[in-house]
Write a structure and sequence with these properties.
By secondary structure, the protein is α+β, with helices and mostly antiparallel strands. It is built from twelve helices and 16 strands. The protein has a seven-stranded mixed barrel with strand order 1-2-3-4-5-7-6. Strands 9-12-8-15-16 form a five-stranded antiparallel sheet. A two-stranded antiparallel sheet has the order 10-11. Helix 4 packs antiparallel against helix 7, helix 7 packs across helix 10 and helix 10 runs antiparallel to helix 12. It is globular and about 75 Å long. The protein starts with a helix and ends in an 83-residue tail after the last helix.
Length: about 550
């Protein structure tokens, strides 16, 4: 038996080796590639990823079809270097990859997904864990938009929950510089990421793991989505705005094999939301029976009722992160849930997981509720209502607000420090970072300033023991800088000496008459400094 297993392993290894991509199999000159890699590494500060396709020229243009490639990782410690690793690559994303428009893809930066032939670690991310799939996100002009959100997310969620690791790299494709990218992980089911069970092929039971997403691109996945209108209810948010909830679409990302499974997770999700709604809006405490139908419960509070079906800690974490960054897509896209109904389930309550996609963040006023509130009516008219009803309901609850406040109090110093660390990291690597554009640090400073104002407001809004009804003023304080009048210095007045010509009748020489120069003293007025304005919430030491 052992001999048979060994033989099978050898055969599989041989097959895998035969199918692996190499410089040679892709028609790439090995010596020239090594020479190019040395040159690229020598001119870089950041880690380098150099991806080589067939003949060192094949373009990567598809969002659906992978292109064969090999991957080199350069300019790092020896234990992190990768050479000639067999993989395949494709475009990823929707609007970020211009929906696959070839002309725009060729003319602009686009994100990529790399799939290695075998599990491998890249740049030590995720504590050195190995995975097949990795993602390269393009960076915008401000560079840090996604990375700082991931950094804050990792602090907020801690090691108990998965949040993608991240690292800046210089990306080359076929030895041509493509830009500064952010290497991140692929959100997926894995014991080290979203740990839900994977059903055996063609298994039709509903007792499986589910990983699904609020997804505005749901129609690209026919047969894998369900739609929910939130019961057509109208609710009021934390700011007093009342609105009917808009329809939402969910795409199931995990494997399933029948309509019954899709219907099951759809019904379960809508029932969980219904439990939230009835508990918070109606004071009616529901639960689910053994067949997952809604029934009355014996619970006596909204907190107890909701905690029975929703992983509250995950909701607190996700809400705090989204309230900080103000993501306009909070209720419309890239918002993930997970639950596992298998016998060995690790996620037994609905969990908010794997935060992702922070391209539409850090805008508008830093001094108001965003995640817990409806988006502006004018915004909804132009872009659709992208509010998150889960947060709108939970955000009004005293017990939930208290949990968020305690979380913020315990982590605010670490989060503020991480923003500083991020900026220092960019400065340390400015020779490469400046390749994004000569004004790249202006964009970084803009986000940095916005976040510091945001942190100051959150300090006021989320105070342990303070009622959720105490809402800090939303208007930004008017900062009046002390007015300094510079001293007025008059130039000294100097009278030019008058020299009379001597009158010579006889050899008499008169001494020249020299008038003494008159020098006026400079007139210096004292600087007038206005007193600090007495404005509530004004904190000169914190405003940046």
């Amino acid at each position: 038996m052992k001999i048979l297993l060994l033989t099978i392993l050898i055969i599989l290894l041989f097959i895998n080796t035969i199918g692996a991509h190499t410089y040679e199999s892709l028609g790439i000159d090995d010596a020239q590639k090594q020479e190019n890699n040395v040159m690229i590494a020598n001119e870089s500060v950041l880690p380098v990823i150099n991806i080589s396709t067939r003949n060192n020229t094949e373009l990567i243009l598809s969002r659906e079809i992978y292109t064969d490639c090999v991957v080199d990782v350069l300019n790092v410690e020896d234990n992190l270097k990768l050479q000639e690793k067999s993989a395949s690559i494709k475009l990823r994303g929707n609007s970020s990859s211009f929906y696959g428009d070839v002309k725009k893809v060729m003319a602009n930066q686009v994100p990529y997904r790399i799939k290695f032939d075998e599990k491998i670690n890249v740049l030590g991310l995720h504590h050195g864990e190995k995975f097949k799939d990795w993602v390269l996100l393009k960076t915008e002009g401000d560079v840090i938009r996604n990375d700082i959100a991931f950094r804050m997310g990792r602090i907020i969620f801690g090691d108990k929950y998965y949040v993608s690791d991240s690292k800046f790299v210089k990306l080359y494709i076929n030895d041509t510089f493509k830009g500064i990218y952010l290497l991140v992980e692929q959100n997926e089911i894995d014991k080290k990421k979203v740990n839900v069970s994977v059903p055996e092929k063609n298994y039709n039971g509903t007792d499986i793991g589910y990983y699904f997403e609020i997804d505005n691109y749901y129609n690209e996945n026919p047969g894998k989505y369900f739609i929910y209108d939130y019961g057509g209810v109208t609710i009021k948010d934390i700011r007093g705005v009342e609105r009917k909830l808009a329809q939402v679409e969910f795409t199931v990302k995990s494997d399933f094999y029948c309509q019954e499974q899709l219907d099951f997770i759809g019904n379960y999700t809508t029932n969980v939301f219904s439990i939230l709604y009835h508990a918070i809006e109606k004071g009616e405490y529901k639960t689910m029976d053994e067949n997952y139908n809604l029934v009355n419960s014996t619970f006596t509070s909204a907190e107890e009722t909701i905690s029975a079906v929703l992983d509250i800690e995950s909701a607190v974490n996700m809400y705090l992160l989204y309230e900080i960054v103000h993501d306009n897509d909070v209720g419309e896209g890239s918002f993930f849930f997970a639950i596992d109904f298998s016998r060995k389930s690790k996620i037994q309550k609905l969990q908010m997981v794997s935060p992702w996609d922070f391209n539409w963040t850090y805008g508008d006023s830093p001094r108001r509720y965003w995640a817990a509130a409806f988006c502006e009516a004018s915004f909804a008219k132009r872009m659709g209502d992208r509010s998150n009803p889960w947060f709108i309901l939970l955000g009004k609850e005293e017990w939930f607000h208290e949990l968020v406040s305690k979380k913020w109090e315990s982590l605010s110093s670490s989060i503020r420090a991480e923003v500083i660390n991020e900026k220092n990291h960019l400065i340390d690597n400015i020779n490469d970072i400046s390749l994004v554009g000569k004004n790249v640090m202006d964009g970084v400073d803009s986000i940095d300033n916005w976040l510091n104002k945001r942190f100051n407001w959150i300090d006021e809004a989320f105070v342990p023991g303070q009622s959720v009804s105490v809402i800090p003023v939303e208007k930004e304080p008017i900062v009046i800088n002390p007015i300094t009048i510079r001293p007025v210095v008059t130039e000294p007045v100097v009278t030019v000496p008058v020299v009379t010509e001597p009158v010579v009748t006889e050899p008499i020489i008169t001494e020249p008459v020299v008038t003494k120069p008159v020098v006026s003293e400079p007139v210096v007025t004292e600087p007038v400094v206005s007193e600090k304005p007495n404005i509530k919430y004004l904190t000169f030491d914190k405003l940046m």
